[in-house]
Amino acid sequence: MGQAITSSLMALLPMLFKVLRSVCPVFRIGNTYLVTRADDVRQVFADDRSFGVPYREKLNVITGGEPFILGLEDGCHYRDDLAALRQVMRISDVEALGAKVGDLATRTVDAAGGRIDVVDMTRRISFEFLAEYLGVPPVEHGDLSTWATRLFEYQFVSSDRELRDEVDVIAPALRSHVLRTIERRRDLPDGRDDVLGRCLVMQEAGHPRFDDAWICTALVGMIVGGPPQPAMVLPQAFEQLLRRSDALAGALRAARANDDCRLAAYIAEAMRFDPLAPWMPRCALATRTIGTGRHARTIPAGARVLASMASAMRDGRRVPDPGAFNPTRTPDQYLHFGFGVHQCFGLEINRATLHRMVKPLLQRRDLRRARGPAGRLTKQGAFASTLVVEFGA
């Protein structure tokens, strides 16, 4: 019953956002302010010194108190950590990662026997390629994907006592696993050119950033923040394609023509109708006014701010004909990966890999929903749970 109510409320959000953008674009509920217009959402994301990220408290539980970029405000520490990460997670890696994902997806679809759960498929692919890239091996007494997904849920969605009790076991176990991996790789170097291998090269060279604690925190942060996301957003995008015969036909043509740019555009547009989250939270660090004219609203320091990317990407002031499916939109009309200082660190990896995870599926003949409830997207809370499709050879 609870999930049915949640699904119904989520389905009503686009209409609610439309009304709010028109009559009350910065909507207050107690000490929480929901920001709905595209320009205002971008203003919140761009002003990190006034609207800070509220992730540090939970991140400290996950990382054992070590700082990670997701929870840092803009400044020297944040920018130094970001620069250090970019030394070991390089833009030049993206092309090879995209090819790796394509191979994994092809093998997964080939082995599926004509029926596959898009959620399970994308989860397995994303964890396999990203864990290998990071240099984080499978855990001995547990499941890395389950651990990371539960920690992601704790960080961004839920704070219930049962989940927190689980996190108090999982988080230190994951940190211990990563630290043991660091020690083994340092003691027995194998020459692998993954993120951990590069970190150990920097450590050996005496780079002050790359001690064991920093490396462990970086790897834990990336494994929690990265691979859980495709299994949440890609099935939602796939559902949007399945609802629109013309859009699905266009995505099929792009996949079968090996037109990756065109296919990526179809996936990005499908994601606009059901993005990863309806909004991102921020904390007002200073009193600021959002909006202009009669819709301007002053947000006091200490307030909670919800900047709605989902609403912004349907704002006709910046997204022409927002109700239409249009894969020729320009990048500035999308906020899938945030905006400003805390834009998703894995942006380029996502752009290179998301469409490739589903490309082999879209290349199959007679792609269709499975019969019955399995063929409809279901969610656990706000995130995709199952979506089963069938296909021919």
From TrEMBL:
Keyword Iron listed: yes
One Pfam family here: p450
UniProt entry keywords in alphabetical sequence: Heme, Iron, Metal-binding, Monooxygenase, Oxidoreductase
SUPFAM superfamilies with a match to the protein in the record: Cytochrome P450 (SSF48264)
GO molecular function: heme binding; iron ion binding; monooxygenase activity; oxidoreductase activity, acting on paired donors, with incorporation or reduction of molecular oxygen
Family recorded in the similarity comment: Belongs to the cytochrome P450 family.
UniProt name for this protein: Cytochrome P450
Origin organism lineage: Bacteria, Pseudomonadati, Pseudomonadota, Alphaproteobacteria, Sphingomonadales
